[in-house]
Amino acid sequence: MSDAIENCAIERIIATLCADHVRLKHMFDRHQEELVGGRYELSHEFLLQFQRLLADHVTVEEQQILDRAMPRTSTRVNANLYRAEHRQMGVMVEQIERMFVEASSTPLTRRKMIDLIDAERPLKGMLEHHCHREETVLFPAIAGFAASPAGEPTYAI
Ligand SMILES: [Fe+2]
Ligand SMILES: [Fe+2]
Question: Which residues are close to ligand 2, an ion, with C-beta < 5 A?
Fold first, then answer.
């Protein structure tokens, strides 16, 4: 693949990943909104959609950005940090999903809603911080590399 085509492909991948971040936030917000509205089934469905999108998103990020594009840059971005947070968020969302299934065996009370929302706070915070760091550090480093004919990053890290 020529450098120009490769660079164009990387830019498209980054644009899709940024759009995923917006969709992930929207799905998680909808999940919590339906939960506090007492619509447990719908809330659970949004959580499952969120979980699927997060898994697909992480696969693309790790394969196309961290494995393929990043080794071609001279950036000092710590890929292991991103991978570790991906694993951690995957575990957190699995735990939350299990809590939801367990909670469904008895009526959904206000207390239970509050407990579920509280339990989700660490995942919500990590997701927000992680996406922000990707958009302000990781992706600009990769895009800077892709935009440079010499193959050197144009962003200071
Ligand atoms: Fe990520
Ligand atoms: Fe991401």
Answer: 134
Tens digit of pLDDT for each residue in 110-152? 999 999 999 999 999 999 999 999 999 999 988 887 666 555 5
Contact between 63 and 20 (Cβ < 8 Å): no
- pTM (2 d.p.): 0.88
148: left (phi over 0), alpha (psi -120 to 50) or beta: beta
Compute, in angstroms, the gap from residue 48 CA to the centroid of ligand 2.
Answer: 18
Q: Ligand 1 centre from 14 Cα, in Å?
A: 11
Residue type, 6: E
Q: Structural domain boundaries of the chain? A: 3-143
Phi, psi of 73 (to 5 degrees): -100, 170
**What's the CATH number for 3-143?**
1.20.120.520
